[in-house]
Specification:
By secondary structure, the protein is mostly beta strands. 0% of the residues lie in helices and 45% in strands.
Amino acid sequence: MSVVSINRSTRIDFTALDNTWTINPDISVFVQADVAVASTIANSRFTNNGVVFAAVNFNNGNGALSFSGNNAVIQNATAASITGFDGGLTVGGIGASIDNDGSITGAREFGVLFGSGSRDVNLDNSGKIYGGSFGVWVINSSDGGTTNNSGEIRSGSVGIGATLNTGVTTVINNAKDGVIQGVAKAIEVNFGRFVLDNKGTINGLVQGALASGADDVTNSGTINGLTRLGNGDDTFAFAGGKQGTVFGEADSDTFVFEGKIAPKKKGVATIGDFTPADDTIGLSKGLFKKIGKSGTLKDKFFGLGKKASDTSEHILYDDNSGLLRYDKDGKGGAKAKVFGLLDGGPDGVTADDFTIVA
């Protein structure tokens, strides 16, 4: 293992298989016009407890740190920092693992880049990542990697951005304390598809721009912005969180209500472009009782208007307002609860537009 215990101004290069480099606390590696740390070797391990800075230009294709070998492990400790004038950290190869508890910054371009040659990249962030254009940037033709965030990922433009080939998936898990934010867009995926599980806070537009895959979003946290899912048979699960209007956009989309009905203070879960017969509303049988066990909702459990006309009508749709209500006892003493809104109150909604899910 090689340890950096004095300040240095020259680049660190990994030169052998299974090399390990560690930068001690309060030590800085400050490199002009080059990357600060670079490896093309497999199984390279790098731990930063200090300060790394590089003024490298992204035209060279690198961040302050550049790892292109397989199975690289990069750890950035609490209070440690990695900063690049253009980019922070670039990874390629198969199986890279990034664990950030400190800060990673790319002033002009990206905080972390999953490069075009990367596959099975895993980013665990509990610290802070910032990029002028992208906080996290995924450019890949075969694998979109996984981002697990319980810290902050921010950008002056796009928080997390991905450009993928058709059929390629990037996975984003935003934990309860996690924040993803972009001035232009919080998340943007071009082509391919994305899977998003949000329990935390997302500030900005979530967009499947030009995406052709079946995007899959579950929100039990907060999305302060619109969600636009683009092409493909997408799924958005309202799981008791708060969000702006959700647009499935092209193709046949499914909007699932699960977990719990969000309280009024969080606003009504709103679907911006529901198209009867093409799109579907999924009803969790754990949340909606007495509507059957599985499959398409039966006509007897569905009613039009604000109030149930008999004891069997539990799912109500008011085509004047677009509001969806759940009446647990039908025409009984309990008041029907609003659980969703179909913006514009589209005509032609029937029981066939609802399906019961686990």
